[in-house]
Hints:
The complex is a heterodimer.
Chain A: H1 3-6, H2 33-46, E1 53-57, E2 72-75, H3 81-91, E3 96-102, H4 103-109, H5 111-120, E4 125-130, E5 133-134, E6 140-141, H6 160-163, H7 169-174, E7 179-186, H8 190-208, E8 213-219, H9 223-226, H10 230-244, E9 248-252, H11 253-256
Parallel strand pairs in A: 1-2, 1-3, 3-4, 4-8, 7-8
Antiparallel strand pairs in A: 5-6, 7-9
Chain B: E1 5-9, H1 10-20, E2 25-28, H2 35-44, E3 53-56, H3 60-72, E4 77-81, H4 83-98, E5 103-109, H5 125-129, E6 140-142, H6 147-164, E7 167-173, H7 174-178, E8 180-184, H8 194-200, E9 216-217, H9 224-244, E10 248-251, E11 258-261, H10 264-279, E12 284-289, E13 291-293, H11 297-302, E14 309-314, H12 320-328, E15 333-338, H13 347-359
Parallel strand pairs in B: 2-3, 2-4, 4-5, 5-7, 6-7, 11-12, 11-14, 14-15
Antiparallel strand pairs in B: 1-8, 6-13, 10-12
Helix pairs in contact in B: 1-2, 1-6, 3-4, 10-13
Amino acid sequence: MELNEIIKPENLVYEKPRLMNENPMHYCPGCSHGVIHKLVAEVIADMGLEDKTIGVSPVGCAVFAYNYIDIDWIEAAHGRAPAVATAAKRLNPDKMVFTYQGDGDLAAIGTAETIHAANRGENIVIIFVNNAIYGMTGGQMAPTTLEGMPTSTTPYGRSIALNGHPLKIGELLAQLEGTCLVTRQSVHTAAAVKKAKKMLRLAFENAMAKKGTSIVEFVSTCSSGWKTTPDKANKWMVENMFPFYPLGDLKNKIETT
Amino acid sequence: MSEEIKLLKGNEAIALAAIRCGTDGYFGYPITPQSEILETLMAEMPWETTGMVVLQAESEVAAINMVYGGAGTGKKVMTSSSSPGISLKLEGISYLAGAELPCLIVNVMRGGPGLGTIQPSQADYFQTVKGGGHGDYRLITLAPSSVQEMADFVGLGFDLAFKYSNPAIILADGIVGQMMEKVVLPPFQERKTEAEIREQSTWAAQGKPTHRKPNVITSLELDPAVMEENNIRFQKKYKTIEENEVRYEEFHCEDAEYLLIAFGSSARICQKVVELAREEGIRLGLLRPITLWPFPTKAIAGYAEKVKGMLSVELNAGQMVEDVRLAVNGKVQVEHFGRLGGIVFTPDEILVALKDLIINK
Lengths: 257, 361
C-alpha cells in the first residue's frame, strides 16, 4: 500500500489523544502508566468533559500526571487523593473529579481515605495502578507485592510471616455499599486496552450520573522495579499477577440493575 | 434594623459566622473542646439555605486534605480542631502553604503534650507561629479573646487568606471556645458563583476551558533553582504581610511603668490584673497581640525604653515570651508567667508573679 493511501483518514487506526501534550514522559520503557494516561485523556476528550474535569494526582510515579494530560489538576499529599477529590466533587457537584493513584498511595498510606471515600459513595472515579511495587522510590515492597516477590525491602522475597499478606483492596472495596463499579483491567494487549477503555468510560459516566464511587484497577508492570525487561515483565504479570489479581468486574451495579 | 444580639459559646459563634460569611465548605472531625463547631453546623443544615457543604471526615488528616481539595478549586473552605488534631493536620497545612491556597483553620487549644487534657491551654503557640509542619512557611494567626472575636475573625481570616493566597488560622483556646457571651453575628454574604471564582481566582482548578493553560495546584518542584525561587516568593509575601497586617490592642499602656503581654483568654484575665495593680498604685498596662504572626514586634519594641519591665503571661511554659524578648532586644527585663496542663491562672497570682519576678526583684 502506498504511503498516501495509508494516511487517509479512513485508514487511521491510531492518533495521539488531543489532551496529551508534547512533554517527554518520565516513565520507564514498558511502564503501564503511559497507556493508562492515554486512555484517561481519550475518555475525557470523547465525553467532551475537558472543561469540567479536575484530576487529582498522587505521590508516586504518577505524581507528574499533570505534566502530560492538559486538564486542571490538584496534586495531593501521599495517600490523600480520595479526600482531596471528595471535597473537589462535593463543592463542585457538576464537575468530573477523578484520582489517579498507585498501590502504595491507595492501599498503604491512603487506605483510610480510600475506604471512607468509597464507603460514602463519593461520585468520583478512582484509577488504581497496581504494579505490586513502589516505583518512584526505587522498588520497595508495596501492600500488593506478591508472596515471594523480591523487592529492595524484601530482598529474599515477601515473607507472609514477616510482611503479612498481599492486600486485595479491590475485593475489599467491592464489599462497600458506596461503590457502584469495581473492575480490574490491564493494558498488556490491544484487546485488553480496548476493554479497559470501555470500563474507564463507564466509570466516568457513573461519576457524572452521580451513581457512587467507581474504581478501575489496572494490574500493571514495572519492569524497572521488577528488574526485568518490558517483554518479560508482561509475561511475568500474566503468569504471576493475574492468578492472584484476576481480571474482570469485582462489582458492577450498573450493568446488573 | 436593630442589631441582632445572641448569647453564644465561642465555638457556636464560629459555626454561625461561617455560614454567614459565604463559606462554601467545612470539613472536620470531633475533638473536645471544639466539637460544637461541627455539631452546630450539622444542626443548622446550611446546605439547605446557603448551599454550604458540611462533612464529618474520617480523620483530621482527611479533613485537612478535603480543605486542600476544596481550596484548590477556589472555594472558601475551613476546618477546625483542637491541639492533638492540629498536629495530625500539619502535613496538610504545609501543603496548603506550599501550594499557596487560601483557607481557614481553627485551633481551640487544649493542654498537652500527647493526649494531654481537654482543659484550656496556649501551648500551641510555637506550633502555629514557628512552623509546626515541614518547610519555611507562615500562617496568618489571629488570637481571639472574646466570643465576638470568634465570630469576627472567621470573615477576617478568610479575607486575609484570600488577599495573600495563604492559609489563616484562628488560634483560640478552650476558654474562649466554651464560654458564653453576647455576640453580634456578621451579616449574610452570598457564596461566590463559579464565574466569580474563575474571574477572581484565576489559578483555581475549575476545569480547563480550551483557551487557557491547565491550572495545576501543587507544592512540588524538583528543580532546586525553581524551588528556591518559589521560596523567595513566599518570603516576600510573608514580609508584605508583616508590614501590613499586624494587629494588637493596648489597655492602659499610655502611662505604664510595667507591661503585661498576653493573648487570647490570658489577655482577658490580664485586664483584671491591670485594674488590681492600678488600685494599688502600680501603673500597669496590657498589650494584647491580636495577630500572633505577624507579631506586633515594633509596638512592643516601642515600649522597651518606656517601661521598667514586661511580663509575658501565657497558659504555657514560656513560648510567646521568646518573641517579646526578640522585640525588645535586651533593652528591658522580660519575664514569663504561666500555668500548665489545663490550669488557668487567677488575676491575683499574676499580680504576685509580676511583683516577685519584676517589680521587687
